[in-house]
Task: inverse folding
């Protein structure tokens, strides 16, 4: 029986997945892979110098060895190329730190794995470099500043709204936990899809939010409010699994829009 978290990639091939970063989102990703009963968690990577390097995954995450977790030890990034065999990993999902993106493309080129970059905050130049390197190394990469299927559909809708309501004013409100940088990368993507000059973005930082983006549009006669909320980080894990399934067997750089379009086929 598919769970909510693996519903969107139902029917795709089983994948061997390595996860980098086991903070809030990485942990949700790990749980989602295990819950799928279909995909294999083949490695978990950490930053060099982490106190958890070479530690047992279950003990690091839960303080004890749980039988539902594979008996994996956490691999520091610089040791991954030696530790992982070609074929051991179909796709790496990166929920670690934005500065690691290019090293991950290099690493995936060596171990013949594809890559889903979930971290945010890269410049267009950095993304272009990721794309060039992905093609040079013959691997597929999805760059996904917002992994949720819903936000990507919201962007399609507001793009249409802005075309039809040419004279409307738009503003964006986003709500995230206190440690999230302002504004989100997603707010920038939404503003670009509205494409109607400078769009004001308002940010709220409070405990309890996972991720909310709201677009308010008014032309003085009608007001339209479109809202998306990630209720748990399972929403990000679900999108990352869909992106991972999409990118296996492809070469070059793709976006979440490509993934969502493929889901709708
Ligand atoms: N694209 C999307 O829809 C989403 C993106 N994210 C992104 O994922 C990343 C992680 O988010 P959270 O889990 O909420 O953060 P977090 O702070 O809870 O976890 C980050 C994890 O990465 C590790 N880490 C930090 N620097 C590292 C490095 N250089 N190499 C390897 N590991 C490193 C930390 O030790 C920690 O385990 C952020 O960049 C965030 O913006 C998170 C949620 C959704
Ligand atoms: O880091 C997060 O958590 C999120 N990041 C995304 C971004 O930076 O755009 C947005 C998402 O809602 C949560």
Result:
């Amino acid at each position: 029986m598919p769970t909510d978290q693996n519903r969107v990639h139902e029917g795709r091939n089983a994948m061997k997945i390595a996860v980098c970063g086991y903070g809030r989102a990485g942990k949700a990703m790990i749980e989602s892979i295990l819950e799928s009963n279909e995909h294999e968690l083949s490695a978990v990577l950490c930053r060099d110098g982490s106190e958890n390097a070479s530690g047992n995954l279950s003990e690091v995450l839960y303080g004890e060895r749980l039988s539902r977790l594979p008996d994996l030890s956490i691999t520091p990034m610089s040791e991954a190329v030696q530790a992982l065999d070609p074929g051991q990993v179909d796709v790496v999902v990166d929920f670690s730190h934005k500065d690691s993106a290019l090293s991950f493309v290099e690493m995936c080129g060596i171990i013949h794995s594809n890559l889903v970059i979930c971290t945010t905050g890269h410049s267009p130049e950095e993304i272009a470099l990721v794309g060039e390197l992905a093609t040079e190394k013959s691997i597929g990469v999805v760059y996904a500043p917002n992994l949720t299927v819903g936000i990507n559909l919201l962007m399609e809708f507001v793009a249409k709204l802005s075309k039809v309501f040419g004279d409307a004013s738009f503003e964006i409100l986003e709500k995230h936990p206190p440690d999230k940088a302002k504004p989100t990368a997603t707010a920038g993507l939404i503003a670009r899809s509205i494409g109607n000059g400078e769009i004001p973005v308002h940010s709220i930082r409070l405990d309890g939010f996972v991720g909310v983006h709201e677009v308010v549009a008014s032309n003085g006669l009608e007001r339209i409010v479109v809202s998306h909320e990630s209720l748990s980080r399972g929403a990000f894990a679900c999108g990352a699994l869909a992106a991972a399934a999409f990118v296996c067997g492809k070469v070059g750089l793709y976006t979440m829009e490509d993934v969502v379009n493929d889901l709708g086929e």
